[in-house]
Amino acid sequence: MVAERHLALARSRDNRLRLAHLRIFSMLMDGPLRAVHIAARLAATKQTVGPVIDELVAWNYLTRTVDPRDRRARILDFTDEGRDLVDALVSLADEMEDEWRALLGPDVLETCRTALWRIIDSQNPLSP
């Protein structure tokens, strides 16, 4: 349900976008990263995420610049167009959370959120 609404919003702007692209966007929410770090966070290989990243760069959603700490490496970040799309996706997430809060109440919503994060963390191979 959540992914479908986000994908519908993204596709209303660009029908080439897929869930794989949105997963890359989510990895860059806290700032620029190397492709290898994005792959690790997604429990994927660089070879798997590479073509998806290449599309986002070609479509002007991401930039690829030289990492000043290692000139052989490249850093990925949002372009203005990419940031605009991500801002719209974040706004949609906020609207959905407001809907759930109105439906469930703040305490039940927080209990649900805590339970879901425990489940997610238990399935994440990178969790402690």
UniProtKB/TrEMBL annotation:
SMART domains: HTH_MARR
Gene Ontology process terms (BP): response to stress
Domain HTH marR-type span(s) in chain numbering: 1-121
PROSITE patterns: HTH_MARR_2
Record GO terms (molecular function): DNA-binding transcription factor activity
Signal peptide location: none
Full protein name: Transcriptional regulator, MarR family
Species of origin: Tsukamurella paurometabola (strain ATCC 8368 / DSM 20162 / CCUG 35730 / CIP 100753 / JCM 10117 / KCTC 9821 / NBRC 16120 / NCIMB 702349 / NCTC 13040) (Corynebacterium paurometabolum)
